[in-house]
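Lab notes, practical 5.
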Amino acid sequence: EVYHIPALDGVFNTREGIALVRQIQAAEKEMKRIQWDFIAENPMSSVSIDVAQNIVFSSKLSKAEMDRLLQMIDPSLHHVVAYKELKESMEDLYPIAIGEKYRDIEVVNEEGKTVHLADYVKSGQYNMVEFWASWCGPCRGEIPHLRHVYDIYGKGEDAFNMISISIDNKEDDWKKALKEEEMKWVQLCDPKGFEGSVVNKYKIRGIPFCLILDREGRIIDHGVRGAELDVVLVDLLGDRYEK
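Output from the prediction step:
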């Protein structure tokens, strides 16, 4: 009611959204602490495996944190199916683990030329790689906010470099959406869709999904949308929104 519904009509209550996200993040941090404490206190309980699985899916972890989480589970449980599934879930998340270098992929630009993501990620700047598709309703719903972000952070000195990669396998659908949405930042496409590099190299199962890269190309956040992205930008590049 405060942020998302108005945003559908292009009204961005940025201040209210940022305040709400910070409250949510504080609550999530406390929930995460409680979950980690439970596992530490109950390493031989099979429930701890379920709690660890919840942490994996709801948190943003580095490889080291994932390894520590696994090690907290008592070896007596390592043979159970749930533990093996937990380990597999972590391995699937390795490509987007916090602190990892982004993985280069082969894509197509608007001119139809085969290029690489590395050609567009700018060293020395913060980058966002956004995965989307023309047929994805939530993706299209997020684009007005991305236009808003681009107008404020995507230009000038110390710009936030934005790169969108579609997984449309129909070029006409992709180009039609680009024209309709007036996306003025870098637009690329993985025409192989769910069989292509985006899914296979990054193990992405749902869109929209984004990676936030630091100035060295390492992942520092992911999966942020709307006011969550606003918070990231304010923290990284300072508050450029109107007071």
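Observations recorded by the TA: Residues 233 and 239 are 8 Å apart (CA to CA). The mean pLDDT is 95.
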